[in-house]
Amino acid sequence: MCLPLPLSYQYSVLLSTSQATNKVITRCPKATQTEMQAAVDSCKEAFETWSQMTTLTRQQIMFKYQALIKRDLVGGIEKLCKIS
Hints:
Blueprint: H1 7-11, E1 13-17, E2 24-29, H2 33-51, H3 55-81
Antiparallel strand pairs: 1-2
């Protein structure tokens, strides 16, 4: 499932080009300063909970995350960075 991108992503992108052909292969969204600050604030808040978890609990979460990444890897990166 792809979530709608913020409006700023529709206007500001970084182009990724093939080194072999110099053709654009994808466009990745470029965040605004406000969006970056919101991400930093969210991470600081999440760290409060994360830092209080045991190492074993963190490890279990990361293994579950790894399994999800492996499951969704095919086509996932293209969907993440592609802007139509």
